[in-house]
Structures are given as C-alpha cells and as structure tokens.
Amino acid sequence: MNALNVAEYTHTLGLQAKTASALMAKAPAAIKNKALKALARLLRENVDALQVDNARDLERARAAGLAEPMVDRLKLSPKVLETCAEGCEQLAAMPDIIGEILGMKQQPSGIRVGQMRVPIGVFGMIYESRPNVTIEAASLSIKSGNACILRGGSEAIDSNKALAKLVQQALAEAGLPQDAVQLVQTTDREAVGQLITMPQFVDVIIPRGGKGLIERISRDAKVPVIKHLDGNCHTYVDDPCDIAMAVKVADNAKTNKYSPCNASEGLLVARGVAAEFLPKIGAVYAAKGVEMRGCTESLAILAAVPGAQLVPATEQDWSEEYLAPIISVKIVAGVDEAIVHINHYSSHHTDAILTTNHVHAQRFLREVDSASVIVNASTRFADGFEYGLGAEIGISTDKFHARGPVGLEGLTSLKYVVLGDGEVRV
After folding, report:
1. Is residue 162 within 8 Å of residue 76, measured between CB atoms?
2. Cα(91)–Cα(393) distance, rounded to whole angstroms?
3. With contact defined as beta carbons under 8 Å apart, do 333 and 356 qualify?
4. CA distance 223 to 166
C-alpha cells in the first residue's frame, strides 16, 4: 500500500467509524448485550480455527528471532480465548451506563440541571503484541456505545484479522453496524500516522504498548491521547506497620509478576522499622533472585542476608521502571519523606503505603499525586478487572478525563441536560 492509498484507506475507516458511532450511541442495551454474547459464543466455536491463524503469527515471530517471552504474549491458547469469552459475558451482565442522568438539581429559576453519560464517539487504539487486546477493546467499545478503529502490532496481524472478523460477525448478528469495530488491515506504519491525525473522525487515541510507541503517539497525535508512559510504582513500609503483612505485600507487589506496569519498582522503608523489616524482605527477595539496588543505609542492613544480590543505587534507579527482578530500596525518615520521594520520582501510576497509623494512611491518600493510591494492599491490584470495572482498555496517568484504569466510564463523556417547563431567563 503506497502512502496515498494508506491516506485514502484510513480516511475511509474514519468516515465509516463516524457513521457507525451515531448508530451505536442510540443502540439499546439489550442489542449491545446480544452482540457481546454472540461474540463470546463465536470465540468458543472457533478455537481451533483461531489457533491456525495464530500459529502463522507465532511461526513468523520465531523466524524473526523474537524472544520467547514476547512470543508467549502472542499466543491465543484455548485458555486465553476462554478468558476473552468470559470477559464478553461479564460485560454483557453489567448495567448499561449510557444515558444515565447524574446530579439533577432544581435551580431558583425553575429549571432542573443535570448531566447525562454519553459515548465519546470514535476511539482509535494502537497496541502491540497481545491479540486478546482486540477482543478487550472491541467488547468495551460495544458496551459503551462507541465505534473504534483498532491497529494491532504487525507481529499479530493474522490473529487480529481473524478475531476482528468474529467481532463484525457478532455485530451483524445483533443488527449493529459492522463498521462499529474496524481493524486496520495493513501493517504499514503510516496508517498509525494517519489515524492519530484525523480529529474530524477520531475523538481520542489510546496507545497500549512500549514506551517508544506511546512517546511517538503523544508527540505526533492531533487528537487527545489517554496514556501512561511508565509504571514506576512504589511500596512504602511505614512506622508503625504490621511487619508480617508488610513482608507479604511487598513480596507480592514485586514478585507476583515482573513485567506489568503495576509491579512495584521501588521499596521505601521508614527508618524506625528498617532493622526489623529489611532482613525479612531481603531473605524473600534473595530466595527469588531479586536484585536489590539500595541506598547506603539499606545496604548496610541487607548485607547480613545470605545470598542477597546487592548493588549500590544510583540517582537513576529511583526513577527506573525495571520490568525485571530488580527493585530499588531506600530508607526514609518517615511518611513525609516517603511522600516527597514518590511525588518526585514516581510515574504517578500506583503507589502504596503499608501502615497501622490511620493518620499516615489518610495523608498518603490525599498527598500522593498518583492515579491509584493504595493502603495496606499490593500495587498489583491496579487494573480494571480487579477494580470491578469488568475490563480495562488501558491505564491513564493523565489528570484530565480518565485517570487510572480506563473501563466503561473512561470511554464516556458527560453532557449537561436541562429540563424546563416554559422558563425564560430574566
């Protein structure tokens, strides 16, 4: 596809999405739910066929020398497909929030003023690796009454095409426009450049992938972007705290899984509990092969831990998102220094305090400037499913519109509605 053809192609996608969005916005809840249930059924009926398409992507990825962990992210196993199907059914079972009216209040003039929740319109999503994101994005788009244009990674093109075909089949079964969910069929990178510069068709762009992708989208987009760049999350162990609980949570926050953006990359420990806490968590991390990059004070305590992998921390370590079995460790005076450190170095994604002091907990909640702030639980909970959103389309560290895990509400907007009975302004 040459540059001119790519421009024409994406323009057509945009026009079709805009037209479909008007029909989706007024679709009854029962019809949208019918499409979601149909999609769940089609996913289950086509497990074998989908794995044939997926096998082509896997073969290409291995031939291109893609690392095995990345190849693993491409797999559409029966378990992954069942999870996708269950996600569609869960969304279908959730209440429809489109059209709900909030905060209706009578004014002195006699008019009543409130806000109605409405779809955003058209969103574009650009993502890498995991083909199951195609189903997550499509299902959320259907439930929220939007239209979407999806551009998956070239490494999953055959899988994504097969999944998108099932989505359009489900839409047609329910009597909804097939163009409500469109997949960019070309792997030409220029399609991304076109998609993010069409404000006449696209209302918001959601990038989901590596930092390089998100930086490019944020820099070049001419439409609003919902995004997060880094996941430099912190766990702060306060004085006072329940030491046993703190060890359990700090372990889970780091080692439950190393690659997600909500894994803790920094461990802050109040000086008053450091001598008791650090040897315990140090032994856990040592047993699991986690490298600890510590301040001078923390390394002096951790040095007594058998088998501990210890490295002096540099200034860069306080800002680093490792996505690996590495964690920075710093001793702080208390909650004040912890809050200052987090607000300075964190990526404002998710930060947690482990404490038995209610006042410290409340201060941490109010003063830490992050999209999710947690008391006495693991940072690994910061995702849409765990927050009860049904599913998420991504996580936002922006402050406007959507912040934190972006589920159905994040794909909607509010407009003012005014109800009167012949009132005129004087």
Report:
1. no
2. 13
3. no
4. 29
- For 306, phi then psi, to 5°, come to -60, 135
Q: Which residue(s) pair with 353 in the sheet? A: 236, 375
What SS3 class is residue 120? coil
Closest CA to 240 of 201, 274, 282: 274
Helix (H, G, I), strand (E, B) or coil at 350: strand
Strand arrangement, sheet containing 147-151? 181-183, 147-151, 122-127, 204-208
Tally of residues, the chain: 426
Query: For residue range 21-45, what is the model confidence (pLDDT) as tens digits?
Result: 999 999 999 999 999 999 999 999 9
pLDDT digits (tens, 9 = 90+) for 59-116: 999 999 988 878 888 999 999 999 999 999 999 999 999 999 999 999 999 999 999 9
What's the rounded Cα separation, in Å, for the pair 301 and 413? 51
Q: How confident is the model at residue 3 (pLDDT cuts 50, 70, 90)?
A: low
3-class SS of residue 130: coil
* Separation CA 330–CA 108 (nearest Å): 57
Query: Are 401 and 410 spatial neighbours (Cβ–Cβ below 8 Å)?
Result: yes
112-119 sheet: strands from edge to edge: 101-106, 112-119, 412-419
Beta bridge partners of 417: 114
The amino acid occupying position 220 is D
Q: Evaluate if pTM is beyond 0.90.
A: no
> Using an 8 Å Cβ cutoff, are 414 and 280 in contact?
no
The residues facing 115 across adjacent strands are 102, 416
> Residue 393's pLDDT is what?
86
Which of 159, 87, 84 is closest to 129 using CA atoms? 159
Nearest to 242 by CA among 208, 276, 209: 276
Q: For the segment 316-344, what is each residue's pLDDT rounded down to a tens digit?
A: 999 999 989 999 999 999 999 999 999 99
φ/ψ (deg, to 5) at 10: -70, -35
Query: Rg (Cα) of the chain, in Å, rounded?
Result: 24
Task: Give φ, ψ of 399 to 5 degrees.
Answer: -105, -15
CA distance 176 to 31: 8
Cis peptide leading into 240, omega within 30 of 0?
yes
